[in-house]
Amino acid sequence: MLTVTRAVGERIFIGDDIVVEVRAVLDSKQVRIAIEAPRQVPIRRAEIVDAVSRANLRSLAATGDAAALAAALEPGAQRSSASSSESGSSNHSS
Amino acid sequence: MAGVTELRTLEAMELTFPAGMPGIPGARRFALRPLGGGGLNVFGCLTSLEPIRLAGGEQVVSFLVAAPGLLWPDYRVEVDDGTQALLEIAAPDEAAALVLVDLHEDVGSSTANLFAPIIVNRRLALAAQLVPARTEEEVGWPIEAPITVLAGR
After folding, report:
1. How far is it, in rounded angstroms, from Cα A18 to Cα A40?
2. What residues contact A17, with CB distance under 8 A and at least 6 apart?
3. CB nearest B113 (choices: A40, A55, A77)
4. Hey, how many other C-beta atoms are within 10 angstroms of the C-beta on B138?
5. CATH number, domain at B70?
């Protein structure tokens, strides 16, 4: 882990093609940062990735047994068939 | 790129997740199997082909997934450049979205993650979970969307 002090307008290179720049200090708790990276490099706020990770783990915890799950869901799938026919949007072949 | 196909039904296939999934880093290869007969495979099971190391030890894991097309007719997904490159998506019609279901003990209160769907390249059988750069409020599709066809069950 590298911790550095930067002034507004100063930049940091990560590898050859990622640039991080401090754009503004908004107040004692917030800074604005600009990140330039190749299009295929994902840039995500950590709290969003964390929320998705937690949701994934919740989904896993709830669906450990595929066979039980299939039994539980079979009527559900048929129910959705009925509701889609009612709405006229049924398309069994797609 | 433009939005992807919002699948109405699921088909059986083996999927490779080159980047794993957030929170489940070792998850690479999964089998997707539709659940329910009658030709309307809205729900499916996504089962890991290898044991995955989790806090509770190594185990084969399964997700319940859903094809969103019939359940949420207005649902649209925009695939970012990174995901498009990762999945080698050459044309929008070879990409499809499915969503992870959080099946509750009270089945009727189960939810689906419309915020971060699984994007599938059907031609190459590659898949990745799309994690938006924007917040849930900005995207407008919730991470815990109610599943109305299960309500009251």
Report:
1. 12
2. A37, A38
3. A55
4. 8
5. 2.30.290.10
Interface test with B, best of A17, A47, A56, A57 (most B CBs within 10 A): A56
A77–B35: do the CB atoms touch at under 8 Å? Answer: yes
How many folded domains does chain B comprise? 1
Residue B90 has pLDDT above 70, yes or no: yes
Give the pTM: 0.81
Helix (H, G, I), strand (E, B) or coil at B9: coil
pLDDT tens for B99-129 read: 999 988 788 888 999 999 999 999 999 999 9
In the chain, the amino acid numbered A65 is: D
Classify residue B108 as exposed, middle or buried by CB count within 10 Å of its CB (0-12, 13-18, 19+). middle
Q: Which domain holds residue B38?
A: 5-150
Shortest Cα–Cα distance, A45 to chain B (Å): 7
Give domain limits for chain A.
1-43, 44-82
Residues on chain A touching B62 (C-beta within 8 angstroms): 60, 63-66, 69
What is the ipTM, given to two decimal places? 0.89
Strands of the sheet containing A18-27, edge to edge, are: A11-14, A18-27, A30-36
Report the pLDDT averaged over residues B120-139: 94
